# Entry
Amino acid sequence: MRFYNISGSSAERLIPEEKGALRLTPGGRPCYNFGVSKGDGPRAHFLFVKPESARESWIAKTLEGLGYELVDLESSRSGLLRIFIDSPRGITVDDCARVSHHLTRAFAVEGIEYERLEVSSPGLDRPLKRLEDYRRFAGREATVKLKLPRAGRRRFEGKLAGVEEGRILLDVEGVRHSLGFDEIDRARLVPDV
# Structure
């Protein structure tokens, strides 16, 4: 078993006692993206597949017990498991470290297979994945991309006006649009800087 720092341009071999330690990338940025690789090094294959809903549900419940929200989960065929977390107070490197340590132990107990684990905040352009996200962030600017075009366009950017009867309300240039949750391909908050 080898441990690797997977941020930066090259894989750096770590001794097991250092697993999970906060390190700096070659560019001087703090990094906590450490993971376990069973091969000779990290793989460059990043084809992400749809997560299993039972696993996603289990991880969400586990994170709720720690006081975090599962925002998104990505997994790749090469074994990379990328988890995005959030909390009302925001996310720090210490939060990512805490969740990573907890999940590493929980995965071992539950027998969940993975090659590498990354835990991160969703960023300023947080994805909107659940209907509750649209309620929670009402009043914020968002970009919404539809699965199929509506009135000749698929991309809308405007202010979230909440949820009414299971439909997302979005004010775009003075016009209120009512979008079905199942019509949305993806949506993200516009960074408020």
About this structure: The first helix runs from residue 53 to 66. The two ends are 43 Å apart (CA to CA). The chain has two domains: 2-120, 131-189. Confidence is low (pLDDT under 50) at residues 1-21, 23-51.
